[in-house]
Amino acid sequence: MDALSAAPKGVVLTERQRIAWLRLIRSDNIGPATFRDLINHFGSAETALAALPELSARGGATRAVRIASEAEAHRELEVAHRFGARFVGIGEPDYPEALKQIDGAPPLLAVKGALTAAKRPAVGIVGSRNASIAGAKFAAMVARDCGRAGYTVVSGLARGIDTAAHRASLGTGTIAALAGGLDQPYPPENIGLLDEITGGNGLAVSEMPFGWEPRARDFPRRNRLIAGIALGLVVVEAAERSGSLITARLAGEFGRLVFAVPGSPLDPRCHGTNGLLKDGASIVTAPADVIEALAPVAQFDLFPSSLAEEPTRDHKTMIVPPGDSERARIIDALGPTPVEIDDVIRHTGLSASAVYLILLELDITGRLHRHQGGLVSLSN
Is residue 150 domain-shared with residue 247, that is, in the same domain? Predict the structure, then answer.
């Protein structure tokens, strides 16, 4: 595991850049994918922030887009500082290596605890909240042995399997991915466990603002973090249509190894894991199954740094806003069915830069819907 265990490369943001990044990601209609396209197009968050009003107007907005102010960004940074946390940008050395490359990776992560936990290869362990004694014991065994083998264990701080995995890897290093802000952990009964994680060899991470109470729709985003940070995911006891299966699906989409622990067909908690095995997941009956399968993957630096700002590039002289006829051609080409952006470029015959800029205009005004795999469609 020499390559991923070594100090990662990256560019450290200045405080001015960090504030601009925080403002941009906290502004209306700016998700991770839109953020990345804006940085890639304009070169810096500051330039992108200055362009938002014009982009919004050209995209057909009926009211001014809300842009997070410097005062709001400073307040959130101050809250993080008082909480003992900080924000890490996607191109910085302390950002989890594997997470950088997933579709829609968070531009900024709020983190608290030992950053060394994010610099080692990770294995995810998730499963039923209503875990059996045997399931919790096996999850702990996998977590303990993976930790001893040099892996950080990542999970979601939930009851049951997550809790067992975190507790078993407190000594070697564990990452808790939260659905709400770092100051709003869920469930409340695991607040003490979270304190143990962040006060020792572990780390808590979240892409949500401080003060954000987790809602049901926030947990799939949390699951993306688990699947993205880990090189492989172990599912122990998961019912059908459970959050653990969402995490497994995401892990598969990200090219991660997916493992499942077989269980009794009479136990509803095992229906999901048995289904994963039928669909091709790797069977796990001992921790060595996971460690041996991940060893070849963890030997190589598969995840180079990405998304660095380019402050010296003169974007104002390079960007020519597309005209109304070009915008109309793209809108006519789009519809409710998701399509690849390359297909839009080929269909319209427009330059890639013009297509991406018009898509950004539509996105910022809420008229574009982004799908997994980089597909786009017009919003209803």
Answer: yes
